[in-house]
């Protein structure tokens, strides 16, 4: 079943009106017809199962059948991702949105291969947000996760301290899994969790020194993971951890 996001102002008591690019997508790409079922979300936690009842060149009207279940985790997960090269950031955004991330903040770190100017960063973030929206549709999210402006490392730490109950830092030079086990227990009780993922070249030692007193530094095992793999691994663990703790 296809999902679409609309502004809250487009949601009425009995029907929802879809406008913009989604109209062409519904009619010409998906070739949907009157009577087809779709899922619609406000992007703010309001979800509905609907039936298409009217179509024109400018809008699609869908009658509300019933409220759909919310698909969000019971905690907010902030991903502070060192900017990787190539298409890896696109992969991180797409997969982590599927896994339940609520905010993604690209971060400039010392060993980042890619260095973005302010102009390039603004254009890149707009592209990142479009990828997040597409992934949110595909995975039936109740919200569209926000992709923030690019931050410098120290600003990212300050932001995480102010907005998150727990900061987790997977670090390739950290040994042993005891800290990981204890950290996941803490994560299950936190309403908001920040995860810092380093770049292809890893965290600089001074970067770990700046964050370790405010965070839980952990290992993800004895293998060295690529930056995009580490992000997906951490979000997978936090998603399952959150879902399990919600049912206990």
Question: Quick gist of this model?
Answer:
The protein is of the alpha/beta class and 248 residues long. The protein is built from seven helices and twelve strands.
Would you mind describing this structure in some detail?
The protein has 248 residues and is an alpha/beta fold. It is built from 7 helices and 12 strands. Strands 6, 7, 8, 9, 10, 11 and 12 form a 7-stranded parallel β-sheet that branches. Strands 1-3-4-5-2 form a 5-stranded mixed β-sheet, with helices on one face. Strand 7, helix 3 (118-138) and strand 8 form a beta-alpha-beta unit. The model has no long low-confidence stretch (mean pLDDT 93).
Specify the overall morphology.
elongated
SSE series: EEHEEEEHEHEEHEHEHEH
Oligomeric state: single chain
Q: What is the mean predicted local confidence, pLDDT?
A: 93
Major sheet characteristics: 7 strands, parallel
Which consecutive residue ranges, at least 5 long each, have pLDDT under 50? none
Strands, count: 12
Helix proportion range: 25-40%
How far is it from the N-terminal to the C-terminal residue, by CA?
30 Å
Structure class? alpha/beta
Features:
248 residues, five-stranded mixed sheet, 38% helix
Topology, element by element:
Layout: E1 3-5, E2 15-18, H1 21-29, E3 37-41, E4 47-55, E5 60-67, E6 76-82, H2 88-99, E7 103-108, H3 118-138, E8 146-147, E9 151-152, H4 153-163, E10 166-170, H5 178-189, E11 192-197, H6 205-211, E12 216-218, H7 227-247
Parallel strand pairs: 1-3, 6-7, 6-11, 7-8, 7-9, 10-11, 10-12
Antiparallel strand pairs: 2-5, 3-4, 4-5
Helix pairs in contact: 2-3, 2-7, 5-7
